Amino acid sequence: MKMIVSGGGTGGHIYPALAIIREVQQRISSVSVLFVGTKTGLESTLIPGQGIPFRTIDIEGIDRSSPVKAVRSILKIPASTLQARRIIREFQPDVIVGTGGYVSYPIVAAGASMGIKTCIHEQNAFPGLANRRLAKKVDLVMVAFPEAIPHLSAKRVELTGLPVRKEILALAEQMPLRKENDHFTLLAFGGSLGAESINRAMLELVYRYRNYSDIRIIWITGKGHYESMQRELLKKLQGQSLLCELQMIPYHEHIEKVMGITDLVICRAGASTVSELAVLGLPAILIPYPYAAENHQEKNARALVEKNAAAMLIDKELDGDTLYKKVESMRLDPDKLHKMSSNMLAQAKPDALANIADLVLEGLI
């Protein structure tokens, strides 16, 4: 069996692709895999580093900042499609899997037009442009959120969920057995690089909770913000000691270790993040990244808010006072937190990866 996988631009498209590749390889050791990406995307370093054969095509996202840049991007599509067809003819895949991002469009579209079995996976509640266009062409569309389905015109759509890390799945098995915390534990993070708006609000939140001895705050600032946030917090406290327990760190390589003792999470609303929260049943205050493509993080968050599985604050309205009031309204209402946790768990798809692999291999779709 031969399989082409394509997706890129961000980790949200690449990591699910990697998970699918590893699951298929585990099931069929003889499978030949080729990953198709771009020379400049994150995939160009991540994929070869995993020992997976890698080819590139020359394509870029449509730059809407000016008509000239948009036209330049569009003019690359015919050439990238020819490159994609050449790769397909040379590799002769049995199936092509796209996980989103502009790079996946030419290779999946070309495969569909050449009679190759094709499928795509959409991670967000509102599908990206590439997947919306591809949905009409492919044999199968797999989605992480049911809210994505009305936006897709497709032959076949399956709700699979989004693959989550094995470490998260292992933690999920332990969560029902954990003891109640003696501290109410808050976990705040804005991704590996941090988030300026969340960090600013956290400065005020820590200050508000400075005299609460039953509060534990785990604040992951991001490497680029750590030193400045330390300085600003010390300045704000003006020599006052903290009665609350504060763990302020730039980055946590194994964040699942702190998720296991967390009562409430403050974070962005990327698809991978909310899928992990769902598997763990962790209540959250979601602060969608305002510059995400087509505002998909806000749509991810709203999908959970509508099911009373999470709360949401809009980034432009975020400040320390607003965040403090939102946290307090949840901390002081254990029943609300418990219901939110149950509702979050109801959205979980812990078997997502197995389901996706089943579909990819199901008679080659």
Please characterize this protein's 3D structure:
It is a single chain. With 365 residues, the protein is an alpha/beta fold. The chain has two domains: 2-164 and 350-361, Rossmann fold, CATH 3.40.50; 167-346, Glycogen Phosphorylase B (Rossmann fold). It is built from 14 helices and 13 strands. A seven-stranded parallel beta sheet has the order 3-2-1-4-5-6-7, with helices on both faces. Strands 10-9-8-11-12-13 form a six-stranded parallel beta sheet, sandwiched between helices. The chain is elongated.
Write a brief caption for the model.
By secondary structure, the chain is α/β, with parallel strands linked by helices. Helices cover 43% and strands 16% of the residues.
How would you summarize the topology of this molecule?
Layout: E1 2-6, H1 11-27, E2 32-37, H2 43-49, E3 54-56, H3 67-91, E4 95-98, H4 104-113, E5 117-122, H5 129-134, E6 140-143, E7 157-159, H6 166-174, E8 184-189, H7 196-208, E9 215-220, H8 226-237, E10 245-249, H9 256-259, E11 264-267, H10 271-280, E12 284-286, H11 296-305, E13 311-312, H12 320-331, H13 334-346, H14 352-361
Parallel strand pairs: 1-2, 1-4, 2-3, 4-5, 5-6, 6-7, 8-9, 8-11, 9-10, 11-12, 12-13
